[in-house]
Design a protein that fits this description.
By secondary structure, this protein is mostly beta strands. The protein is about 0% helix and about 50% strand. The strands form two sheets. Strands 2, 4, 5, 6, 9, 10 and 11 form a seven-stranded mixed beta sheet that branches. Strands 1-3-8-7 form a four-stranded antiparallel beta sheet, with no helix packed on it. It is globular. The N and C termini lie far apart (about 40 Å).
């Protein structure tokens, strides 16, 4: 059973930075891709960033490129999302997710952590 636990959300002002963590447990994640998604009220969940556990290769949504950085700590089985220059439109519940890339679907999800950005 894979478990993903996010932490690090909070209330910040526009322009501030915030770092989210996703602690993964339950199995070896060498073949996994880990992702960050977000969902704002009244909107669909959207992709934010991803990182492949084995290679460290990252991918970002256009809306966060240059501001957000996804990284990992293999020893801690933890994935991070460093968010800089936050904007009010970044406010959402942020979710960590995991999948085996060849399967396509994101099978594992965390409970989410709230990020609020005041203008």
């Amino acid at each position: 059973q894979v478990q993903l636990v996010e932490s690090g959300g909070g209330l910040v002002q526009a322009g501030d930075s915030l770092s989210l963590s996703c602690a993964a447990s339950g199995r070896s994640f060498n073949v996994y891709q880990m992702g960050w998604f977000r969902q704002a009220p009244g909107k669909e969940r959207e992709f934010v960033a991803s990182i492949t556990w084995s290679s460290g290769r990252t991918s970002y949504a256009d809306s966060v490129k240059g501001r957000f950085t996804c990284s990992k700590d293999n020893a801690k089985n933890t994935v991070y999302l460093q968010m800089n220059s936050l904007k009010p439109e970044d406010a959402a519940v942020y979710y960590c997710a995991g999948r085996i890339p060849v399967l396509g679907r994101w099978d594992y999800w965390g409970q989410g952590t709230q990020v609020t950005v005041s203008s």
